[in-house]
Automatic annotation (TrEMBL):
Upper taxonomic lineage: Bacteria, Bacillati, Actinomycetota, Actinomycetes, Kitasatosporales
Keyword 4Fe-4S belongs to the record: no
Protein name (record): HAD-IA family hydrolase
Keyword Hydrolase set for record: yes
Keywords: Hydrolase
Entry coiled-coil feature ranges: none
Pfam families: Hydrolase
Organism: Streptomyces chartreusis
Length: 230
């Protein structure tokens, strides 16, 4: 119950908005087993999973930016796996496995964000993601609850760290002052790009407690009696 808590005071009180990355902050990185499963679905021998991952990232920027279709992204991967794949999974199975491996969230991060949201801080998601993953993220309860707006690279035709991605996120957040907007991301190049545009930044490195120190959080109210157990 919030009755015996109050919001933490400064330094968060002048924050107007938060813009937050998805994968590597809210979303957990896929496990090696998830990569192997996806590689196998795409027809790559399990011992070639590392090569599959390199091929995956080779085309992912264009896919994230909405420049190539689902079919093109996956067909290129299928053709690169083996000359004669032993089986061809339908596009829907590959898309489903891809979504599944990117949608595991960190409950500790979500808890911190729920508290910041409860304090009235607008939070916008800014993610490099292709259309199927963007739709899946928008459909999650946490996203619907926490996010004031969501901005995905596939929908704006620009990936972070392009300035246009940050400009779109600021617009989606209601044009807060960049100097009163905190951008959170796990990638140093994205952090640097945001700082160049005058945003405050937090280079997230997996510690939800560090995130909590940068956002409004509930703290025990001093001087108030604890609720009676009676
Ligand atoms: Mg990330």
């Amino acid at each position: 119950m919030p009755t015996n808590h109050t919001l933490a005071p400064l330094p968060h009180d002048d924050l107007e908005a938060v813009i937050i990355d998805y994968n590597g902050v809210i979303g957990r990185q896929p496990t090696p087993q998830m990569w192997s499963r996806l590689a196998a679905l795409a027809g790559w021998p399990v011992e070639h999973t590392d090569a599959f991952i390199r091929a995956f990232w080779g085309n992912r920027e264009a896919y994230d930016a909405g420049e190539i279709s689902d079919r093109t992204f996956w067909q290129d991967l299928l053709h690169g796996g083996t000359e004669t794949p032993r089986r061809r999974e339908p596009l829907s199975a590959l898309r489903k496995a891809d979504i599944e491996m990117w949608t595991h969230t960190d409950p500790a991060v979500l808890e911190v964000l729920h508290t910041a949201h409860a304090a009235g801080l607008p939070i916008a998601l800014l993610s490099n993601a292709p259309h199927p993953l963007a739709a899946a993220l928008d459909d999650t309860p946490w996203c619907a609850t926490l996010m004031y707006r969501t901005v995905y690279s596939c929908r704006i035709g620009a990936n972070k760290p392009a300035a246009r991605a940050f400009e779109a996120a600021l617009a989606a957040a209601g044009h807060p002052a960049p100097g009163r907007t905190l951008f959170i991301d796990d990638r140093a190049d994205n952090i640097q790009a945001a700082a160049n545009l005058g945003l405050r930044t937090l280079h997230y490195q997996g510690d939800a407690a560090d995130l909590a120190r940068h956002l409004p959080q509930l703290e025990p109210t001093m001087g108030l009696a604890a609720p009676s157990a009676a």
